[in-house]
Amino acid sequence: CFHSSSLSGEMSPHVETAAIETELLRDYRFGQQQLIEIWGHACAIAITKAFPLTSLGKKQPTVLVVCGPDQNGSIGLVCARHLRIFEYEPTIYYPKRTPHTIQQDFTVQCEKMDIPFLSYLPTEVQLINDAYNLVIDAILGPETDHTDVKEPYAGILVTLKQVKIPIVSLDIPSGWDVDQVTSDGINPDVLISLMAPKRCATSFTGKHYLAGRFLPYDIQKKYDLNLPEYPGIDCVIEL
């Protein structure tokens, strides 16, 4: 796996990716909204590679995108909007909307694309299995404390652990410790790592993509990221 090595010393990959993000925002003058847009777009492209429209079993190319309260949820909103443009039919479940302008902007963008928002998530798992081809887990990112998952997210994880359709997790599977695998979390079929795989991804056995080909070379070098070569002009690579 491609998590960084020599320069990190005792730093965990999460501290590292947080440090990289801070540097991108502060020194490289990227905007928060810009980063989320890059990641969400790249996640949508990874999903089209893992689940092409022609491969979906149901008549309609329906996808359920479950969004959490923090940055991971915003990435999910952007991902849903791009999937809509790629002619999938996303539905969003976004139970706790935050007052942050960025999240509100991303929400309005989805609403203006006529993407439906669910008012509740059915606890009857069969309803989810019947209605959608796959679920996108954009609930809890590396920024969330996995030991203290509050409602409604704890209940959502219980429901999603029972679904039979494929799950795609953005950056880390919800409920996992960023540094090691925990049995409490979701067990996705596909993982899309952002910037660089987190340490917990080393034991992930499903289909694994790395997304977001934009890191300045100096940052790649400084953090010894040792990223793989992306094919051609792709912004996504299967690891």
TrEMBL record:
Top-level lineage group: Eukaryota
Domain called YjeF N-terminal: residue spans: 17-227
Gene3D superfamilies, per the entry: YjeF N-terminal domain (3.40.50.10260)
InterPro entries reported in the protein's UniProt record: YjeF_N_dom, YjeF_N_dom_sf, YJEFN_prot_NAXE-like
Cellular component annotations (GO), alphabetically ordered: mitochondrion
One Pfam family, short name: YjeF_N
GO MF annotations, alphabetized: NAD(P)HX epimerase activity
Name of the featured protein: ApoA-I-binding protein 2
Originating species: Oncorhynchus tshawytscha (Chinook salmon)
